Amino acid sequence: MEWSKEQMDEKEQLQKVKDTARPTVGILILTTGTVLLMFSLALSISLGAADIDFNTVWGTIFHFNPNSVDHQIIWELRIPRVIGAAIVGSCFAVSGALMQGMTRNPLADSGLLGLNAGAAFMLALCFAFFPGLSYSYVIVFSFLGAALGAGIVYGVGSLSENGLTPIRLVLAGAAVSALLGALSEGIALYFEIGQDLAFWYAGGVSGTTWGQLKVVTPWLCIALLGAIALSRSITILSLGEEVAIGLGERMGRVKLLSAVIILVLAGAAVSVVGAVSFVGLIVPHLARRLVGHDYRWIIPASAMLGALLVVLADLTARIINPPYETPIGALIALLGVPFFLYLARKGGGNV
Amino acid sequence: MDALEVNKISVGYSNDLIIKDLSVSMPKHKITTIVGPNGCGKSTLLKTIVRVLQAKEGAVFLEGKAIHTLDTKEVAKRMAVLPQTAQAPSGLTVFELVSYGRFPHRKRMGRLSKHDYEYIHWALDVTGLNDLRDQPANALSGGQRQRVWIAMALAQGTDILVLDEPTTYLDLAHQLDILLLLQRLNKEEGRTIIMVLHDLNHASRFSDYMIAMRDGAIVTEGIPNEVMTCDYLRRVFQIDAELISCPHSANPVCLSYQLCEHSAGCKVR
Predict the structure, then answer these.
(1) Which of chain A's residues have a Cβ under 8 Å away from the Cβ of B99?
(2) Measured between alpha carbons, how far is residue B83 from residues A344, B43, B50, B86 in Å?
(3) Which of B 151-170 lie inside 8 A of A, CB atoms?
(4) Among residues 81-120 of chain B, which lie with CB inside 8 Å of chain A?
(5) pLDDT digits (tens, 9 = 90+) for B134-172
(6) Which of A228, A336, B64, B210 is most buried when burial is the number of CB atoms within 10 A of its CB?
(7) Is residue A166 assigned to a domain?
(8) Is residue A246 part of a domain?
(9) Rg for chain A (alpha carbons), in Å?
(10) Residue A18 contacts B where some CB pair is shorter than 8 Å
(11) Beta strand pairing call for B57-62 and B2-13
């Protein structure tokens, strides 16, 4: 360490500037994103099959009048669905970011790796055998379903001789999703619950209720805080397993905790919106472009961008062909599929 | 005392052990190189030492204490590792990557301290990466990239450095460049260096201590003069080598060689 004192000071000052540069970018993006998100939330609440002006929206929130139809629409339908969209977007995006960082798989997404299909399958079972089960239990089934889907995909994937590659996992995910989807449809036909389930396949937040939000929000908050607490370890894991071990990362603990958080996030999101793919794929890549490689920034940025994406997708879904609603799963797939092909063409690349 | 002591380890799957009942020690403040043919278990041995693989039986001792009983972060403060296939995530700059070397020393959410910066700057300086610090690491050439990973391991500030084939995929000049850097770290700062090398001549020229393996067992170990003999090279690599004395280190190096069955026998010039 032969630095003269002056040299050291100079270098340190330079570094301090550089060190603050990225966080500044991060904070800027998070702030801008939050403002944009607020704006699109407001827009999304006021636009829809029944156009309601901004003052009425404002009035609903601060001077709720139960006799006004507009107020009723906003309070009982619009606001829950918009908040639901934001929550679901954050859940999918953060679970995708964690999966991509932990496994160094740029194609990781809860939809592509069978978690969503597993959760939807479990929900179908739930509707068939325990109709009328309270939502706080339904969501637990959804978590278990996500675990089931992930378990089968990893099991099938690791049967292949040359080990798990990103593309192979996605193939296993597609096969398992197709199987679980078919089984869910079979159950739906046999038990005549197709009506209840149809909207879960297509993906939509229109059915979101305050009751659901009350159950989902605490789960989301805990999982998000957990994800942020783990973010530094995820960054280290993203350097590769052997490097992470060399740096003294506690692998078992970090992987287990991340897996639990991923399953909770994906399960919670599916129980609200259905098996929507690609949010968890697109958003983390975008977040990395914006805030760099540090997961301490990627995770909050993903939460914010995911919310923004799904809120905007939901808004588009409502205004594209009124009064009918286009499934948001389909809308997001319009963005997601080309993006997936682009990533797959890069040979998986690296995260 | 030895830096690392491997005590009767068996590694592998239960019915297919790659290493069986192997014991060896690596001396402190020396350069130790493990050599052997493909599939001889040298990487397995190294991976067990750095706790990527777990021994079925036996244990690895770090300065007298069984490594798996120590806190993994504490181990990371004493032993840094450069894996064979390290690949940086895209977009990460050299400085950022090297700064992760400070991970075991940092508190949970803490930022880099002045002390951390000193180590990072020193690591960048020693490896000659100062000018490249803001470049994305995966856009560099193979030799530079290897330097970045070495710099990260150096920033960890450990006495022991473990490297798995640090010169693979590099051209001749860059191979030498990396080895000279490791030699300097050993000579000037007394760091213990343990590595796997494929190139026998490099191993002989730069090592204080050599370990030759075949079929998951140690054939011989000792100073290069003891290991680099016609007899052992035949037993370890099944080659008949012509050995001469290296003009740079005076250790034996292999001038040329034949496969055993074709040759007339071994020559020492």
Answers:
(1) none
(2) 27, 10, 9, 6
(3) 152-153, 156, 162
(4) 81-83, 85-92, 95-97, 100-101, 103-104, 108-109, 111-112, 114, 117-118
(5) 888 888 888 888 889 999 999 998 999 999 998 887 888
(6) B210
(7) yes
(8) yes
(9) 22
(10) yes
(11) antiparallel
- Which tokens sit at A93? 């995006």
Tell me the residue range of the domain where A153 lies.
82-345
Contact A19 B82 (CB under 8 A): no
Alpha-carbon distances, residue B171 vs A245, B215, B256 (angstroms)? 29, 29, 19
Of A15, A104, A292, the CB nearest to B117: A15
With CA atoms as reference, the chain B residue closest to A23 would be B111
- Name the DSSP letter for residue B110: P
Q: Omega before A323 cis (within 30°)? A: yes
What CATH number is given to the structural domain containing A178? Answer: 1.10.3470.10
Answer yes or no: do B50 and A242 touch at CB < 8 A. Answer: yes
B121 with A3: Cβ contact below 8 A: yes
CB A109 within 8 A of CB A281: yes
| A346 pLDDT higher than 60 | yes
Handedness of CA A197, A203, A209, A213 (dihedral sign): positive
In CATH, the architecture of B2-227 is 3-Layer(aba) Sandwich (3.40)
Q: Are B252 and B224 in contact (CB under 8 A)?
A: yes
In the numeric block, the tokens 């046999």 are attached to: A190
The mean per-residue pLDDT over the stretch B122-141 comes to 87
Beta-carbon contacts of A76 under 8 Å, excluding residues fewer than 6 positions away, are A210
Q: What is the pLDDT of residues B108-123, one digit of tens each?
A: 556 778 888 888 999 9
Cα–Cα distance, A59 to A149 (Å, whole number): 44
Model-level pTM greater than 0.80? yes
DSSP string spanning A232-300?
A: HHHHHHTT-HHHHHHTT--HHHHHHHHHHHHHHHHHHHHHHH----SHHHHHHHHHHHHH-S-HHHHHH
3-class DSSP assignment, residue B179: helix
**Cβ distance B99 to B111 under 8 Å?**
no
- Enter the ipTM: 0.87
- Least trusted range by pLDDT, from A240-244, A302-306, B201-205: A240-244
Q: Residue ranges of the domains in chain B? A: 2-227, 228-269
Rounded CA-CA distance A126/B244 in Å is: 77
Q: Identify whether A74 is part of a domain.
A: no
Give the residue from chain A lying closest to B111, CA to CA: A19
Residue A203 backbone dihedrals phi, psi, to 5 degrees = 85, 120
The nearest alpha carbon in chain B to A294 belongs to B92
Is A230 inside any structural domain? yes
**C-alpha to C-alpha distance for B80 and B68, rounded to whole angstroms:** 16
Query: Which of B78, B90, B99 to mutate to test binding with chain A, by most A CBs within 10 Å of its CB?
Result: B90
> Which of the four pLDDT bands, split at 50, 70 and 90, describes residue B211?
very high
Q: Residues of B with CB below 8 A from A299's CB? A: none
